[in-house]
């Protein structure tokens, strides 16, 4: 097999996101831009959904929570379905079907007023992502491995760029939604649908009918072998522990910010800090890790960093600081969580092709999200229950710090591929 391409040094062109993007194949460029567009369209609507349901429609708080939970379940929980369909029917039909459902869901949500109608629209929106996201993610991972085997650079660089594109979309989407919200929520939904109309048209024209090297699997039985794959299940636990800690940006962190600052106004700045770090530092950090760490060590380093971020808040919480001093531990959590995320997310996605059965990459990619989503659902409920007890307020943060450590210990002892080198033939 050819040796990996030599990487330019000293601030060379390929160290920049645009240079890395330009070096990709046309199909990979399309898929990276797809992730950007998906997140722009989705996050133009999602941040404003809860307020719309509670204020404009008048839903009770518990019902708003139920609707949001159903959306998460219909998306994250059903990723494994979308992945299996991708293996059976190919990337193109699953992506196109998901785009059609997302357009219909956003359009429906913009006009929905009755509870049943809102629930149906939200379920449709979630299931749409359960179709197209595993299809795109699994093909990006497969193409990244093929690119690596051809000596065109480590797979983690491609997956890091994919993460950057998604984060950029998650940053731009709410800005667009906030502008359109001056009209009304329906305009926001229709704009989101419009983004997916463009994505649908672009993919109908540019996405190949058959992608070379991607075989379709007709035989059943892949799920049975998957649930017996200890190495893959350990990876799911590690990825789930990271996502549970990340989910505290929306669960524990607002509580801590409210306590320290007396309002939730600083949240916007903390979220901006996280997004800015990913967009600017993801690729340099991935390149640094690729020179020094294999996939397992990259995962372990990321999980330890995330654990440290949670421990910072746990250690500072008994002091009860308020004001700027009270916000510093939370800022430390955001910083360390984001750094850990930048190590864990590309490495986990890069590891899946080495663990998946031949022809089952879509199933394994979807199962990674579904299994970790179940961990987040269970863990978030547990964290919420701990908040309602009389235990010291540092306890939930200590639990969160312990989980990534445990997950890191469960990871397989070695990975077939280095974070910055091609896999063994």
From TrEMBL:
Annotated membrane topology is: Multi-pass membrane protein
* UniProt keyword list: Cell membrane, Membrane, Transmembrane, Transmembrane helix, Transport
Question: Gene3D superfamilies from the entry?
Answer: MFS general substrate transporter like domains
Q: Which domain of life is it from?
A: Bacteria
- Record keyword Secreted present: no
Occurrences of domain Major facilitator superfamily (MFS) profile (ranges): 18-419
Q: Which GO terms describe its molecular function?
A: transmembrane transporter activity
Its GO CC terms are: plasma membrane
Listed transmembrane segments: 21-46, 52-73, 94-111, 117-136, 157-179, 185-206, 227-246, 266-286, 298-318, 330-351, 363-387, 393-414
Localization per record: Cell membrane
- Principal localisation: membrane
Instruction: Give the matching PROSITE patterns.
Output: MFS
What SUPFAM superfamilies does its record include? MFS general substrate transporter
Which PANTHER family does the annotation name? MULTIDRUG RESISTANCE PROTEIN MDTH, RESISTANCE PROTEIN MDTM, PUTATIVE-RELATED-RELATED
Q: What name appears for this protein in its UniProt entry?
A: MFS transporter
Q: Which organism's genome codes for this protein?
A: Streptomyces apricus
């Amino acid at each position: 097999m050819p040796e990996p391409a030599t990487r330019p040094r000293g601030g060379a062109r390929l160290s920049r996101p645009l240079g890395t993007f330009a070096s990709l194949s046309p199909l990979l460029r399309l898929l990276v831009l797809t992730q950007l567009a998906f997140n722009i369209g989705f996050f133009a609507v999602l941040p404003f959904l809860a307020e719309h349901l509670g204020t404009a429609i008048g839903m009770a708080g518990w019902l708003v929570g139920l609707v949001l939970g159903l959306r998460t379940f219909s998306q994250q929980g059903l990723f494994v379905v979308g992945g299996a369909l991708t293996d059976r029917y190919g990337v193109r039909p699953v992506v196109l079907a998901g785009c059609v459902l997302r357009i219909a869901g956003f359009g429906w949500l913009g006009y929905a007023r009755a509870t049943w109608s809102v629930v149906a629209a939200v379920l449709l929106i979630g299931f749409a992502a359960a179709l197209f996201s595993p299809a795109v993610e699994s093909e990006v991972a497969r193409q990244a491995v093929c690119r690596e085997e051809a000596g065109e650079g480590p797979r983690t660089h491609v997956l890091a760029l994919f993460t950057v594109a998604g984060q950029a979309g998650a940053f731009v989407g709410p800005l667009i939604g906030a502008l359109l919200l001056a009209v009304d929520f329906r305009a926001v939904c229709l704009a989101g649908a419009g983004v997916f109309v463009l994505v649908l048209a672009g993919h109908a024209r540019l996405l190949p009918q058959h992608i070379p090297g991607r075989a379709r699997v007709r035989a059943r039985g892949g799920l049975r072998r998957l649930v017996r794959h200890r190495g893959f299940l350990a990876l799911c636990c590690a990825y789930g522990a990271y996502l549970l800690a990340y989910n505290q940006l929306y669960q524990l962190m607002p509580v801590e910010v409210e306590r320290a600052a007396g309002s939730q106004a600083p949240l916007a700045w903390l979220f901006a800090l996280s997004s800015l770090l990913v967009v600017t530092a993801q690729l340099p950090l991935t390149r640094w890790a690729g020179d020094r760490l294999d996939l397992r060590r990259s995962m372990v380093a990321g999980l330890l960093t995330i654990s440290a971020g949670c421990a910072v808040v746990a250690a500072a919480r008994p002091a009860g600081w308020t004001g700027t001093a009270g916000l510093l531990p939370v800022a430390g959590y955001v910083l360390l969580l984001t750094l850990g995320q930048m190590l864990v997310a590309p490495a986990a996605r890069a590891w899946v092709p080495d663990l998946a059965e031949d022809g089952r990459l879509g199933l394994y990619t979807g199962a990674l999200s579904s299994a970790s989503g179940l961990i987040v659902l269970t863990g978030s409920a547990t964290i919420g229950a701990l908040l309602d007890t009389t235990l010291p307020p540092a306890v939930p943060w200590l639990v969160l710090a312990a989980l990534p450590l445990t997950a890191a210990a469960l990871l397989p002892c070695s990975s077939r591929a280095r974070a910055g080198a091609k896999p063994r033939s």
